[in-house]
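To: structure desk
From: M.T.
Subject: fold request, one chain
Message: Could you run this one when you get a chance? Sequence is below, nothing fancy, just the single chain.
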Amino acid sequence: MNIAIIIPARYGSSRFPGKPLAKIGGQTMLSRVVDLARGVATQHKNIDVLVTTEDQSIAAHCKEIDVVCVITAADCATGSDRVLAALNKIDKRYDFVINLQGDAPFTPPEVIEALIETFLDNPEINVVTPVHQLGWDDLDRLREAKKITPFSGTTVTINAGGQALWFSKNIIPAIRKEDRSAAHSPIYQHMGVYGYRTDMLEKFCALPQSHYEQLEGLEQLRLLENGIAIQTVKIELDSGLIQTGIDTPEDLERAEKLLS
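Reply: Done. Structure tokens follow.
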């Protein structure tokens, strides 16, 4: 089995231009993500780590940190489209591809490990993505963060078999009566990493953007709106360690506080 961890790193973010090159604790966001991916890849055979970007300054930084970089078009609609575009520009073929966003420097290594193990255990799986059940304190922090940056942080509802029912930038489900005697809240936060069987990635990218995908700005809704199952993997994390992605300068400030 050949596996690729591909890191889309787009310079032209509307909310945070140049985001992959922003520094956290003196190290660029992208280099942190590359280190994370490399750390996991070294534990397995046949796993390659690549970056894909539309920007020459990011490509130059990739050369500095000695990681393969594939230049792709500026008009890729989503990170997954950019990952597929990169795959189409290289000769090697992969069975499974992990889309690890270049703005997710705090993704725990066990998240990537879980995606790999899930695929190796069941190579027929279409798409797999990690989720984390929030404690009540974490849910309170997410609610407070959304008062400032309402489109940061995605939640997900899942069925008994662990398949995703829906994703939203709103906190779902709404809780009419909060029973805080329970160890965790009923809210699952999506951790923003995807593992695709390569043929499913090709199918996904060939589909037109869907209605709710455009409304929410969440590409994974395209899969659900087309009846394609997304398997979730539950990840246990310590309280307070739920910010994996950096969407805005405010998120960056929170990340710096996380390191202090």
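Reply (cont.): The chain has one domain: 3-259. Let me know if you need anything else for the meeting.
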